[in-house]
Amino acid sequence: MGAKALLFFALLSFSAVSVRQAFAENEEDPGLVMNFYKDTCPQAEDIIKEQVKLLYKRHKNTAFSWLRNIFHDCAVQSCDASLLLDSTRRTLSEKETDRSFGLRNFRYLDEIKEAVERECPGVVSCADILVLSGRDGIVALGGPHIPLKTGRRDGRKSRADVIEEYLPDHNESISVVLDRFASMGIDTPGLVALLGAHSVGRTHCVKLVHRLYPEVDPALNPDHVEHMLYKCPDAIPDPKAVQYVRNDRGTPMVLDNNYYRNILDNKGLLLVDHQLATDKRTKPYVKKMAKSQDYFFKEFSRAITLLSENNPLTGTKGEIRKQCTVANKHH
C-alpha cells in the first residue's frame, strides 16, 4: 500500500474517532432544549406552573420577585442559580449585595423546589426552576407566555465579587446600560423591552430620594412629584422601613405598556427610566412600545429568551443542587 493510501486511511480513522468523540460529547451535553425533562421528570414544568399559581394567589408580589430573579441571576456571567446561594463563612451571597437591594421571596422558590423534589428527587436544577418560575410569573402578571428551553445546571459559587461588573445600577448612564446588555447579545429594542418590567412592582424610597432632595429633579412631572414626596417624606429613608412608590400607579399589578406612556410623561421613578425616554438611541422604541402592547410583548419575549440562555452550565458542568440555598456537599 502506498504512502498516499496509508495517509488516507489514517485520516479516515482519525476523522471517525473525532466524529465519535464529538457525538459522545453531544450526547452527554445537548445544551438547552425544549422540554429537557420530558423523560426524566415529565411533570416538572406543570408542577412549577401549579406552584407559581398557588403562591401567586396567596402572595401577589411573589410574581415581581420571580421576574427580577431572571435578570439578577442570568445577567451575572451565567444563568446558574448562583443568586440563590446563601452566604458561607468564606463567601458573601449575591442576595446580600447592594445590587440585590429589595430582592425578596426566595423562600417561595424553596417551596417550588421541594414540590419538584417530591416528584423527581435530584433531577431538576434550581437554575431551571428560577427561570421557569420567572416565565410563569410573567403570565400571572398578564404578560406573554414565553416558550423557554431547559437543561441548565447549578453553579457552585456565589458571583457576589463580580456582580457590579455585570448588573448596571439604576443611576448609570444609558450608554453603560446599553453596553452591558449588548455583551449578552441583547440589542437596543431588547433592552427597552426588558426595562418594561418596571411596569410592575415598586421602588424603595432609598433608590429615588436623590431625585427629590435637597431639591426636586426638574425633569420630573410636577403632578407626580407630589405623590413621590408623600410616599418618601424623608431625605434619608430607613432602608428597613417599608417606604416605596409604585412603579406604575395606573396598573401596578399588570405587566403592560403603560410604563412607556408614563416615562414619556416624565413619570419615570429612576434615572434610567428618564434616560430611556429621552436618549435618542432608545426613545424611538419607547414611543413604539407606548403605542403597541403587541410590539412590547414581542420584544420582551425575545429579550427574556436571550437573557435566560446567557452562558448556562449544561451537560456535566455544575450540579443539580439538593437545596437551592447551598451547594451540594462533596465527600
Task: Describe, in short, the structure shown.
By secondary structure, the protein is mainly α. It contains 13 helices and two strands.
Provide the fold topology.
Blueprint: H1 3-28, H2 44-58, H3 62-74, H4 106-119, H5 126-140, H6 163-166, H7 174-182, H8 188-194, E1 202-204, H9 222-231, E2 244-246, H10 258-264, H11 271-278, H12 283-291, H13 293-308
Antiparallel strand pairs: 1-2
Helix pairs in contact: 2-4, 2-5, 3-5, 8-13, 10-12, 12-13
The overall pLDDT, averaged over residues, is 89
Beta-strand segment tally: 2
Strand content: under 5%
Principal-axis shape: globular
- Report, as a whole number of angstroms, the end-to-end distance: 55 Å
What is the H-and-E element order? HHHHHHHHEHEHHHH
* Main sheet strand line-up: 1-2
* Radius of gyration (Å): 23 Å
Specify the helix fraction band.
40-55%
Q: What does the main sheet amount to?
A: 2 strands, antiparallel
- List the uncertain runs: 6-25
Helical segment count? 13
- Quaternary state of the chains: single chain
Structural class: mainly alpha
